[in-house]
């Protein structure tokens, strides 16, 4: 029997997509329990993976969208080449992942064959696999990337994130009492539940004695959305903006439940073991809803808003989810009764 391989996994996507990679990485560990398993990821998302007990090392790669940073990237690439990996697998199949697969130098390089990109992208890999069907869950699609290596299953499709225990005290100061965190923003406006619905949910919850805490992401658009919400619900409790991802994870771990549209923090909360309620409009709950008995979702009606970031419909599909239904489902998943 040959020695266990040294494996590098690459994923150059952001946040929610990255979290859904975790079951596939765990499948690699289960298949080769004695392997040395490393992950190369954008530095912004590295805290999601830092404390996984079965992952040997996380390599954060400096990255800025639309801009190459060779002065920062080359030292990481040189260090990776010195590791002499036996295998690498690129789960994203984009230009950056393909080039890094080639440059890191593993003799066996598995990659996801996706359309587009530069002409030579497919030649960066020694093995290629086509993307799985988009009508199944993303964790299964990512797991299928490993099929050329005989890996087709894992013990669990649930995600897994471990917060830094050293940040527990700081997290308690930001969220003194566990409550239900409501996340107002998403990467695409069409995935956001209307602020008027959030304000109505606040009023209903306050009348029922159910504690809600409202927050948003980091960025000018997200901050503007929170400012508008303050005007609609001036008595609502607000979570401070937390730009540090590691600290944000520690705060989320204290939540009693989490509710949002289809966005990265939804998958952070699910990975941390917090019960979640996902609100789906244009994106597919079949593909993106968190996996596990503690999680639930609600879907609006289809408005055919297409692939754009903004829904142009006069009646956006996510708006069809009524606040009363959200509160009722939240009460159940948070263990507050119906």
* Helical content (DSSP H or I, runs of 4+): 25-40%
Q: Please give the alpha-carbon distance between the first and last residues.
A: 57 Å
The proportion of residues in beta strands is: 15-25%
In terms of per-residue confidence, which ranges show pLDDT below 50 for 5 or more consecutive residues?
none
Alpha carbon gyration radius: 21 Å
What is the name of the CATH class of the largest domain?
A: Alpha Beta
Summarize model confidence as the mean pLDDT: 90
Query: Based on helices, strands and strand pairing, what is the structural class?
Result: alpha/beta
Major beta-sheet overview: 6 strands, parallel
H/E element sequence:
EHHEEHEHEEHHEHEHEHEHEHEH
Total beta-strand segments? 12
Might you state the CATH topology name of the largest domain? Rossmann fold
Within CATH, the superfamily of the largest domain carries the name Glycogen Phosphorylase B
CATH architecture of the largest domain: 3-Layer(aba) Sandwich
* Count of alpha and pi helical runs: 12
- With strands numbered from the N-terminus, the spatial order across the biggest sheet is 3-2-1-4-5-6
Number of domains: 2
Shape: elongated
Descriptive overview:
With 338 residues, this protein is of the alpha/beta class. It has two domains: 6-149, Rossmann fold (3-Layer(aba) Sandwich); 165-333, Rossmann fold. The chain contains twelve helices and twelve strands. Strands 3-2-1-4-5-6 form a six-stranded parallel β-sheet, sandwiched between helices. Strands 9-8-7-10-11-12 form a six-stranded parallel β-sheet. Strand 4, helix 4 and strand 5 form a beta-alpha-beta unit. Helix 7 crosses helix 8 (220-232).
């Amino acid at each position: 029997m040959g020695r266990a391989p040294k494996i590098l996994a690459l994923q150059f996507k952001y946040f929610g997509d990255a979290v859904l990679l975790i079951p596939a990485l765990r499948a690699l560990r289960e298949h080769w329990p004695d392997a040395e398993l490393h992950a190369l990821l954008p530095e912004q998302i590295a805290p999601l993976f830092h404390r996984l007990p079965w992952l040997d090392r996380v390599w954060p790669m400096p990255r800025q969208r639309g801009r190459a940073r060779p002065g920062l990237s080359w030292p990481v690439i040189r260090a990776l080449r010195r590791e002499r990996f036996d295998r690498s697998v690129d789960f994203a199949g984009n230009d950056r992942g393909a080039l890094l697969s080639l440059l890191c130098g593993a003799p066996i390089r598995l990659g996801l064959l996706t359309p587009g990109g530069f002409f030579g992208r497919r030649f960066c890999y020694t093995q290629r696999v086509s993307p799985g069907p988009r009508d199944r869950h993303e964790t299964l699609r990512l797991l299928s990337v490993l099929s050329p290596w005989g890996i087709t299953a894992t013990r669990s499709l649930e995600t897994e994130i471990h917060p830094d225990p050293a940040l527990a005290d700081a997290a308690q100061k930001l969220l003194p009492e566990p409550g239900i965190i409501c996340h107002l923003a998403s990467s695409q406006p069409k995935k956001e539940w209307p602020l008027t619905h959030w304000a109505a949910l606040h009023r209903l919850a306050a009348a029922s004695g159910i504690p809600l805490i409202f927050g948003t992401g980091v960025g000018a658009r997200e901050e503007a959305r929170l400012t508008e919400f303050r005007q609609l619900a001036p008595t609502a409790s607000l979570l401070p903006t937390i730009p540090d991802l590691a600290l944000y994870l520690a705060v989320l771990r204290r939540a009693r439940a989490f509710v949002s549209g289809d966005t990265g923090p939804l998958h952070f909360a699910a990975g941390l073991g917090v019960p979640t309620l996902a609100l789906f409009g244009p994106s597919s709950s079949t593909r993106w809803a968190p996996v596990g008995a503690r999680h639930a979702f609600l879907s609006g009606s289809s408005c055919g808003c297409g692939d754009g970031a903004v829904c142009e419909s006069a009646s956006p599909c996510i708006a069809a989810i009524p606040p009363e239904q959200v509160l009722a489902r939240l009460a159940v998943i948070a263990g507050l009764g119906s």
